[in-house]
Amino acid sequence: MRLDDDVPLESAGALLARFHVNSTSLAVSPSVQRPGALPMEACRPRSHQQIAEDFQRELADLGHQCVTRCVVHGDCTVANILVDERAKSPTGLIDFTLAHLGPPESDISFGLWVNGRTERTALTLDADRIRKFVAGYHRIRPLSGWAVRAIPLYLVGRGLQMQVRLEQAGAWDQIQVNRLEWLSTHRSWLEQVVASAVH
């Protein structure tokens, strides 16, 4: 069974944190990526060059290249979590199509791309849903002040990543464009929301 509204988002965040705790122990080379991976430093869509340039500059300022990396799921959304129906608790992750090596904090952002919305077509993210997912993660794998800055930035990176994939497919999605632009202009608010979940 897949995750539904009866299962708290906190438990989904906690599941992702446990996955990261285990995957950081794997002996992997950070210079090797699986075919088709699109890490943050490669997110430079033609359609949003200014946002991409600002993002890459901030990524460098954040120290993105120096942080701990692990296997990230890449799409830890409610649809990709298996649930024990009787206990109403997550038991595992499915669909590793977007898995690659990256900072665990980026994977939180990838999950929030969907989990942070009240409905699939929503343009904006919901503060309460963000707090629940991040707080659940933080209980298992404590997040630092660095993560408070990183998670909103990686959310912008997710939007850029999606734009690159759309351009590679020769497609256009105005909803995704609007989401990327919204995320880019609401970074300060996002930092405040993430900080409230961590502190």
**Tally of alpha and pi helices:** 7
Share in β-strands: 5-15%
Give the tally of β-strands. Answer: 4
Biggest sheet: strand arrangement: 1-4
**What share of the residues lie within helices?**
40-55%
Task: Sketch the topology as an H/E string, one letter per element.
Answer: HHEEEEHHHHH
* Outline type: globular
**What is the CATH superfamily?**
Aminoglycoside phosphotransferase (APH), C-terminal lobe
* CATH fold-level label: Aminoglycoside 3'-phosphotransferase, Chain: A, domain 2
Largest sheet: 2 strands, antiparallel
Kindly report how far apart the N and C termini lie: 33 Å
What number is the mean pLDDT? 92
Query: What Rg do the Cα atoms give?
Result: 16 Å
Count of domains: 1
Category from helices, strands and their pairing = mainly alpha
The CATH class assignment is Alpha Beta
- CATH-scheme architecture: Alpha-Beta Complex
Q: Return residue spans where pLDDT drops below 50 for at least 5 consecutive residues.
A: none
Overview of the molecule:
This protein is mainly α. The protein has a single domain (9-27, 50-198), classed as Aminoglycoside 3'-phosphotransferase, Chain: A, domain 2 (Alpha-Beta Complex). 52% of the residues lie in helices and 8% in strands. The chain has helices at 9-23, 49-62, 104-115, 127-140, 145-168, 174-185, 187-198; strands at residues 70-72, 81-84, 89-93, 100-102. The strands form two sheets. Strands 1-4 form a two-stranded antiparallel sheet. A hairpin with a 4-residue loop joins strand 2 and strand 3 (89-93). Helix 5 (145-168) packs antiparallel against helix 6 and helix 5 (145-168) packs across helix 7 (187-198). The mean pLDDT is 92.
